[in-house]
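Task: sequence design from structure.
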């Protein structure tokens, strides 16, 4: 990308003539780039540009930070000396790629990991600029990026794999053990013993199915492919249905308090995904919280940032009276693998909940309830389809 090299900054390392002999200060922006008013030091990535002689004419602030090389020391030097890169096998990169020689059909180098002096890794890509196809290289434009973000992503993927492997090992071991035992010694067990073993296998199979569903949700959220199929949803009825399911599973009905502040606007949302959000928040409140679990459903008017009428939303708040979430952990609640306690779970549920709510155009927050416990609050826009509006 061509960027403007002139400007009012007295210390501009990419400005023509800035601590650079005049014969090296030849790079001028094209008219379109100059109109954008983009200065090299405004770029988040490192930018290094060498002219047709191989001497550096631009070395922006990000490049200086990434390489730990002063801009004044890089300008005017040969590219291979200003930016001494090696590949992971220790070979000198510029001698290996020879940007000014070789095939005239080359247009650049794709991004790859290279090493700076001292062994520090950096992501490098290059573009060879020619005035005409097959002509000589007039400029070599190099982009530099640190590897910290990629390493964080790789660590996140490694953690996900380790978590999945750990969570799958236990139920699959149980399923394998019980089925092998039943097949080998079927006649030795009573009907009650057989039923207990099969119920255990069924529960563990459900656990594996649930984990696979979570992984699919994470994949769709991360890739932006989470589909929302909007239908009319009675959110108050959905809350009551979840509470009834919890009381049917053995929890006391007195532990739940439902507050519906109406009239509620007609909500269009994905009913299955709304159930997933409610189920996760209520399960967390029951498992990790204490005392009464309060679920409040209420309409809400949100004033948009720009001028316009208020936006109608439905707000749902789930709170408990337990110890709550420590203040220092609030910012990590919706990240992968966060666990409020060591009482089971993959730590993926709230990450998925946040992805579902945001896919609907809503918001979700966590805070401290009036009773001292945790309080989760999410809002969903009414979002009536255009053909019904």
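Answer:
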């Amino acid at each position: 990308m061509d960027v403007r090299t002139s400007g009012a900054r007295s210390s501009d390392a990419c400005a023509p003539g800035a601590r650079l002999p005049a014969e090296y200060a030849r790079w001028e922006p094209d008219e379109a780039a100059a109109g954008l008013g983009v200065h090299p030091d405004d770029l988040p990535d490192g930018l290094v540009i060498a002219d047709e002689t191989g001497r550096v004419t631009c070395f922006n602030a990000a490049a200086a930070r990434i390489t730990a090389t002063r801009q004044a020391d890089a300008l005017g030097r040969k590219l291979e000396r200003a930016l001494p890169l090696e590949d992971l096998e220790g070979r000198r990169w510029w001698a290996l790629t020879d940007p000014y020689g070789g095939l005239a059909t080359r247009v650049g180098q794709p991004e790859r990991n290279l090493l700076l002096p001292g062994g520090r890794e950096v992501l490098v890509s290059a573009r060879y600029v020619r005035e005409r196809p097959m002509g000589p290289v007039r400029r070599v434009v190099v982009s530099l990026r640190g590897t910290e973000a990629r390493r964080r992503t790789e660590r996140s993927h490694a953690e996900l794999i380790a978590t999945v492997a750990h969570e799958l090992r236990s139920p699959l071991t149980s399923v394998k053990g019980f089925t092998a035992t039943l097949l080998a010694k079927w006649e030795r067990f009573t009907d009650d013993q057989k039923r207990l073993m099969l119920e255990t296998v069924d529960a563990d199979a459900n656990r594996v199915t649930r984990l696979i569903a979570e992984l699919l949700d994470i994949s769709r959220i991360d890739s932006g492919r989470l589909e929302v199929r909007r239908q009319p949803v009675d959110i108050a009825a959905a809350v009551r249905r979840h509470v009834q399911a919890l009381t049917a599973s053995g929890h006391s009905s007195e532990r739940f308090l439902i507050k519906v502040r109406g009239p509620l606007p007609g909500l269009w949302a994905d009913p299955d995904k709304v159930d997933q959000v409610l189920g996760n928040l209520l399960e967390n409140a029951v498992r990790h919280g204490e005392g009464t679990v309060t679920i409040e459903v209420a309409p809400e008017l949100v004033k948009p940032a720009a001028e316009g009428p208020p936006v109608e939303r439905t707000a749902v708040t789930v709170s408990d009276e337990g110890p709550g979430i420590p203040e220092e952990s609030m910012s990590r609640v919706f990240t992968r693998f966060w666990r409020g306690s060591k009482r089971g779970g993959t730590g993926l549920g709230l990450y998925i909940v946040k992805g579902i709510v945001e896919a609907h155009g809503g918001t979700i927050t966590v805070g401290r309830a009036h009773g001292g416990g945790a309080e989760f609050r999410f809002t969903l826009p009414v979002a009536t389809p255009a053909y019904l509006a």
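Confidence is low (pLDDT under 50) at residues 1-13, 15-36.
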